[in-house]
Amino acid sequence: MKIAVLTGGGVAPGMNAAVRAVAQAAFGKGWEVAAVESGYAGLLEGRFRSVDSGALSGWMSRGGTMLGTERSDDFATDEGKSRAVEAAREAGVEGLVVVGGGGSLAGALALDERGLPVAGIPATIDNDVAGTDMSIGVDTALNTAVGIIDRIRDTASSHHRAHVVEVFGRDNGYLAVMSALAGGADAVLTPEFETKPEDIVRLLEESYEGGKPHFVVVVSEGASPTADELCGHINDAGESYAADLTAAGHIQSGGGPTAFDRILAGRLGAAAVKALADGDAGKMMGLQGNVIERVPLEEIVGEDRPLDPGLYELAGELARIPR
Ligand code: F6P
Predict the structure, then answer these.
(1) Mean pLDDT of the 46-53 span
(2) Cis bond before residue 13 (omega within 30° of 0)
(3) Residue 188 near residue 177, CB atoms below 8 Å
(4) What letter would DSSP give residue 249?
(5) 73, 130, 182, 202 — which has fewest CB within 10 A?
(6) What is the pLDDT of residue 323?
(7) For a pocket test of ligand 1, which of 253, 304, 305 has the largest count of ligand atoms closer than 8 A to its C-beta?
(8) Taking residues 14-28, what's their average pLDDT?
(9) Share of the chain above pLDDT 70, in %
């Protein structure tokens, strides 16, 4: 048996660890493994590279994706998807593991429906894939965001200035809420919940009056007001309310994966190979509780993983202002 593995969509720390796990588990079954370069774009063009155990040395701890990932307009078409299946067949590939976020998993479903057996592994820092409690990369990105918030707070306390930290998440506030919770932020804005900038300025006033030396707001991309608008609003509110903006940006999607992400990658990678070996394709491997489940791709494609409102409320509750 020969399988291929690709990484798709936005990069997430732990993608390399997932590819390594898939390959190692496949080698354990005596299978051949081909790595696909540059995601679906490379699959279409038949860019396969044979890998052996030696070629994967050191991949566990590497950030980014060693296979590359590229958006492909061609693959978005029906004809492109059929050509991708054809390219896999020509290379003798009998099964494919796709490591990526919602868009990549939608591609995986389309290929599976066209006759190429596919197993999906959720990997995105946004944690917006349905059917899994955690995607690969979330824990690392979260720890990176918390590290940034901790450092910003040091600066904020020393200068007595307000700081707005913008975190990634596309249109999902998970990273923002969890990093606000773990970073002890004074407020958090997400795309899911509306916040009036005047309310943040009032919180800031109360915070300073209560004797807090800093005021740190975490704003998710996709939130309204945006981080930039909120910063402007605070700066316009009066001389004593200067605010600075730090966008954590692509720092969050880089870096070596945490132990959690490495282990998750190992568990999901091995489970994907087992699913293909069992002839149970068309599934995504998801972490539910502490168990890895096979979730039909058609159940999760196009679905959201909504932010838990309880966690959003908790972030507000734990940010109480001293009286
Ligand atoms: O979906 C992953 C993600 O990192 C988002 O959090 C972010 O909005 C986006 O990708 C960044 O994408 P790009 O690297 O294409 O700007």
Answers:
(1) 94
(2) no
(3) yes
(4) G
(5) 73
(6) 56
(7) 253
(8) 98
(9) 99
Structure pTM?
0.96
pLDDT, residue 161, reads: 87
DSSP symbol at 10: S
Which residues, including other chains, have CB under 8 Å from residue 136's CB and lie 6 or more apart? Answer: 12, 13, 14, 15, 17, 18, 99, 121, 122, 123, 124, 257, 261, 264, 265, 268
Residue type, 37: E
> What residue owns the CA closest to ligand 1's atom 4?
10
CB 227 within 8 A of CB 148: no
- Yes or no: say if 85 and 98 are a contact pair by the CB < 8 Å rule: no
**CB 59 less than 6 A from any atom of ligand 1:** no
Instruction: Count CA atoms within 13 Å of residue 18 on its CB side.
Output: 36
- CA distance readout (Å), 224 to 138, 216, 220, 237, 307: 23, 17, 9, 18, 16
Q: What is the β-pairing status of strands 243-247 and 215-220?
A: unpaired
DSSP 268-307: HHHHHHHHHHTT--SEEEEEETTEEEEEEHHHHTT-----
Check whether 322 has a pLDDT greater than 80: no
